[in-house]
């Protein structure tokens, strides 16, 4: 993985990223070897994969050139030039994520340099203006990638599109799901105490994550955010399926056909922290305490199973249609 | 499911009917997206009464997406519309979202990126929405050709696409609608060039008659007998003409009665418009409801 | 108790390749030119010989007598029409001619490389095309277009047109506005100082390939692009999923070469005692008319995102050998463009 290798003497640095999560467009979950082929988006570069406890594969990174404004919380003008890194991940052959990030570093010069300078620093955007790390991190999270500032979401989205254009996908939709967005910003400083703050934004699809960590933890912080985005998507999707099922019941339709694929295909993918480095696990532990991710998940799964069980009993007792209430 | 709304000519009420069908489908409990592909004059924003999108949006509409890949905005009708009845849909309703066109969009050149871009967009909507209604402009438009190219692609073969051809209930419109579907450079011919199976494509096209005069209305039954008799003869002639032109009952999805609210105001007709203010006819809403329900009724779409 | 759970494929490895201090390209000619007579070749080698000696001496004076220097020659056999136009003489004949002519001019030729092997590479003779490594594709995948001012990621980079520019292209005059024609506007080099030197290089053309029975779009790579692949090979910068590519094939004392040119391995080692083919730095002795091609090569190289792990690995090895390497690969390339006399 082309991890950014910042040197310690630069002081605190900011890494910003956006993760988009969606379903792989295929009726059934993809087998591992298919995932491997689908994620070969850069010729000659390997796809990384692991199998336990759920299969997880990451495409090679690729670069996108940037020369644009950077959002700041204080609305002070900031500008940067460089590249963003992006890759795709597939979990359980079922969930696809596009993940883009850039490390914002002060530039030595106030003018744009030769392009090779930036290509030698993959994933670094050099800030040509004076900027405070906290201001940039919070600015990125508050801005949601609006024009004309840095838009990592669009880059993630394009990775997803590219991966999904793979010819062997059947493009079937086994269940309805929303694409969610997780914007994250990490301030990395050796003096800093590791912490995380997660916010569900007013826009239902957007969550923001602010992390403080030490500079060596950058790849781990990114993995943590991807894992968080994945589990948040699972919660969102299952809640959506339940509300669709409620609506279906209210209109006299059978909710089981909506819930069955969710139970079959998504429930086994709940493994918070499984692909996260032990260093980042305390953050997960914190989330489990409050708001209690796994607790919420268990409640949702139980509700789905209850609905299905209730319907089965009804069918057994004479197959009456779902009562319109 | 993708529903393409097209029409032989302008002035058929395609957009206003399409928007109403989308609205009804959402009321029936499903998440629905409405895409304004009428690049020449995107008006869906006005029909849904979204002030900032009346003639399309200034930024990030469908046009900019297709031209340069900028992610299009999705406007949630429940939060963006000025109309109370659209903001207060019952809890059993699904989400209704407008993906608007760009103000002053104009035409764009054919580039090889358009088809894959469009496929990405449709596939993404398909993941999230049970139904996407795509309002194409009238006639043999570029948007229609693009839609045929996209749905003919092998990456879209699992996605159900259906075509609604709107036409007024007049001689001219019946002949023109026939031409649009069956004629030279029509949907079937163009579809074949884009790899569609002609029979399957044909089975996925249905007609919607608009502004149909209700002969049972009091103005006819209580009016002058000669006029009533003459009207019935004309109507029968039209039925015969329609049947000869492949627009008969077997390909009919629904009839929308002539309703002043649609003609003059081009708006969404809510239940309140029928029940409370009584400006619209119950028959109009019933027609929309029926068409919306039939979009996914397999018996309606069986091969002919 | 601490438990370590590790899965093999989660930890990718970049294999190392042997490196010389300097790789000297002693010439670069079309295959046909070699077949017509050896006069052209003799001329090229005669002019190159003093520079080879100077270069080797310079390296040894800086890094000691054991400094590693290798020589190589690139045979341009890429243009597909060429291979069909003329029934080629057996490769063994050309190999012998190259080796002998070099010897007659007082230097030893170590490696012979075929340019089509920079598109599809093979490590040994007779590898099926399907089993060859698509090197040109690998390099094409490294291209990162330079952003225009204001590019914030929202828009995809302009489509893969087969061209690479170092600036903003001149806008097309608007033909539709006949009443008020737009005046011509110049292209602009990114990051220019006062004035632009605008470069736009064709990397490949898309051609229809009917070999499989149906029309498939195939990329026909430009000479400049393949020369860029070639320079990266010489600098040891290429791998396929971490594995070395186009490694030299030793001819040995009893050359049993394939009769057909396309069956040759990409890099043929013709001197048993040669120093490694790839090197920290590469130096080329080329006829002066290669100047525009090499300018294009440098332009392409400056738009590639090289594998950071390989870059780090080579930098670390250079540091171990107390060699200072410039950060940019283009600065590791040196040239002498030879004139006609």
Automatic annotation (TrEMBL), chain A:
InterPro entries: SCO2521-like. It comes from the Bacteria. This is Uncharacterized protein. It comes from Actinospica acidithermotolerans.
From TrEMBL, chain B:
Gene3D superfamilies: P-loop containing nucleotide triphosphate hydrolases. Signal peptide: none annotated. GO terms for molecular function: ATP binding; ATP hydrolysis activity. InterPro entries: P-loop_NTPase, ParA/MinD_ATPase. Keywords: ATP-binding, Nucleotide-binding. One of its GO terms (biological process) is negative regulation of cell division. One of its GO terms (cellular component) is cytoplasmic side of plasma membrane. The keyword Iron does not apply. This is ParA family protein. The lineage of its organism: Bacteria, Bacillati, Actinomycetota, Actinomycetes, Catenulisporales.
Automatic annotation (TrEMBL), chain C:
Residues 146-188 are annotated as: Disordered. This is Uncharacterized protein.
């Amino acid at each position: 993985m082309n991890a950014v290798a910042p040197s310690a003497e630069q002081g605190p640095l900011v890494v910003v990223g956006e993760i988009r999560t969606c379903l792989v467009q295929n009726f059934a979950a993809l087998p591992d070897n298919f995932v491997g082929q689908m994620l070969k988006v850069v010729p000659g570069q390997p796809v990384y994969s692991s199998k336990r406890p759920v299969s997880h594969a990451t495409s090679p990174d690729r670069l996108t050139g940037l020369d644009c404004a950077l959002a700041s919380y204080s609305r002070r003008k900031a500008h940067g030039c460089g590249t963003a890194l992006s890759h795709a991940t597939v979990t359980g052959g079922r969930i696809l994520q596009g993940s883009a990030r850039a490390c914002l570093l002060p530039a030595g010069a106030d003018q744009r340099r030769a392009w090779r300078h930036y290509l030698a620093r993959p994933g670094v955007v050099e800030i040509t203006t004076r900027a405070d790390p906290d201001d940039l991190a919070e600015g990125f999270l508050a801005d949601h990638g609006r024009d004309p500032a840095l838009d990592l979401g669009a880059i993630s989205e394009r990775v997803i599109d590219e991966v999904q254009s793979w010819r062997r996908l059947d493009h079937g939709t086994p269940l309805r799901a929303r694409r969610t967005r997780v914007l994250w910003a990490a301030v990395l400083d050796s003096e800093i105490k590791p912490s995380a703050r997660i916010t569900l934004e007013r826009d239902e699809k957007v969550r923001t994550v602010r992390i403080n960590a030490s500079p060596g933890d950058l790849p781990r912080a990114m993995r943590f955010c991807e894992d968080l985005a994945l589990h948040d998507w699972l919660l969102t999707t299952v809640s959506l399926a339940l509300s669709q099922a409620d609506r279906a019941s209210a209109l006299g339709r059978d909710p089981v056909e909506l819930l069955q694929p969710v139970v079959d295909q998504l429930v086994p993918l709940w493994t918070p922290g499984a692909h996260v480095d032990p260093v980042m696990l305390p953050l997960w532990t914190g989330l489990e305490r409050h708001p209690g991710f796994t607790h919420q998940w268990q409640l949702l799964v139980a509700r789905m199973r209850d609905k299905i069980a209730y319907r089965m009993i009804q069918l057994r007792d004479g197959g009456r249609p779902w009562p319109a209430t | 499911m993708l529903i393409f709304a097209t029409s032989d000519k302008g002035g058929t009420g395609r957009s206003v009917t399409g928007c109403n069908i989308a609205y009804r489908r959402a009321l029936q409990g499903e998440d629905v997206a409405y895409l304004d592909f009428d690049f020449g004059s995107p008006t869906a924003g006005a029909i849904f009464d979204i002030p900032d999108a009346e003639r399309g949006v200034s930024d990030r509409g469908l046009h900019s997406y297709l031209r340069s890949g900028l992610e299009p905005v999705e406007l949630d009708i429940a939060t963006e519309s000025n109309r109370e009845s659209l903001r207060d849909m019952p809890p059993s309703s699904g989400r209704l979202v407008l993906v608007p066109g760009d103000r002053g969009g104009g035409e764009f050149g054919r580039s090889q990126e358009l088809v894959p871009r469009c496929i990405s967009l449709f596939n993404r909507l398909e993941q999230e929405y049970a139904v996407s209604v795509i309002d194409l402009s009238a006639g043999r438009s570029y948007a229609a050709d693009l839609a045929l190219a996209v749905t003919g692609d092998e990456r879209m073969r699992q996605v159900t696409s259906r075509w609604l051809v709107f036409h007024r209930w007049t001689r001219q419109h019946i002949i023109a609608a026939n031409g649009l579907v069956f004629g030279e450079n029509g949907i079937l011919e163009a579809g074949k060039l884009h790899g569609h199976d002609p029979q399957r494509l044909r089975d996925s096209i249905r007609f919607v008659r608009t502004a149909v005069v209700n002969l049972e209305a009091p103005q006819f039954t209580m009016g002058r007998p000669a006029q009533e008799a003459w009207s019935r003869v004309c109507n029968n002639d039209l039925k015969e003409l329609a049947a000869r032109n492949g627009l008969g009952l077997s390909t009919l999805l629904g009839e929308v009665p002539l309703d002043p609210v649609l003609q003059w105001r081009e708006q969404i007709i809510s239940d309140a418009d029928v029940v409370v203010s009584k400006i619209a006819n119950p028959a109009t809403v019933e027609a929309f409801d029926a068409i919306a329900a039939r979009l996914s009724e397999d018996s309606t779409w069986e091969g002919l | 108790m601490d438990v370590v759970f590790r899965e093999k494929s989660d930890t990718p490895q970049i294999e190392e390749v042997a490196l010389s201090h300097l790789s000297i390209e002693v010439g670069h000619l079309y295959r046909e030119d070699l077949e017509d007579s050896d006069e052209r070749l003799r001329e090229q080698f005669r002019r190159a010989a003093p520079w080879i000696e100077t270069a080797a001496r310079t390296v040894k004076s800086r890094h000691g007598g054991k400094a590693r220097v290798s020589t190589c020659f690139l045979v341009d056999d890429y243009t597909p029409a060429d291979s069909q136009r003329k029934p080629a003489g057996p490769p063994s004949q050309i190999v012998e001619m190259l080796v002998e002519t070099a010897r007659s001019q007082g230097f030893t030729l170590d490696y012979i490389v075929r340019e089509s092997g920079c598109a599809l590479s093979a490590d040994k003779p007779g590898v099926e095309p399907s089993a060859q490594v698509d090197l040109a594709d690998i390099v094409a995948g490294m291209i990162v277009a330079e952003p225009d001012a204001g590019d914030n990621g929202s828009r995809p980079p302009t489509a893969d047109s087969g061209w690479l520019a170092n600036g903003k292209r001149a806008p097309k005059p608007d033909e539709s506005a006949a009443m008020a024609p737009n005046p011509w506007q110049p292209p602009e080099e990114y990051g220019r100082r006062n004035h632009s030197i605008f470069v736009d290089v064709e990397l490949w053309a898309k051609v229809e390939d009917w070999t499989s029975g149906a029309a498939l779009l195939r990329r026909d790579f430009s000479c400049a692009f393949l020369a860029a692949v070639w320079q990266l090979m010489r600098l040891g910068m290429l791998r396929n999923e971490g594995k070395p590519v186009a490694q030299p094939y030793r001819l040995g004392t009893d050359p049993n070469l394939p009769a057909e040119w396309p069956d040759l391995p990409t890099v043929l080692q013709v001197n048993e005692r040669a120093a490694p083919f790839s090197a920290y730095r590469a130096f080329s002795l080329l006829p002066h008319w290669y100047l525009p091609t090499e300018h294009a090569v440098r332009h392409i190289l400056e738009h590639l995102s090289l594998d950071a792990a390989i870059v780090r690995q080579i930098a670390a090895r250079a540091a171990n050998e107390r060699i200072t390497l410039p950060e940019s690969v283009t600065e590791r390339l040196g040239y002498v463009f030879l004139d006609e006399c």
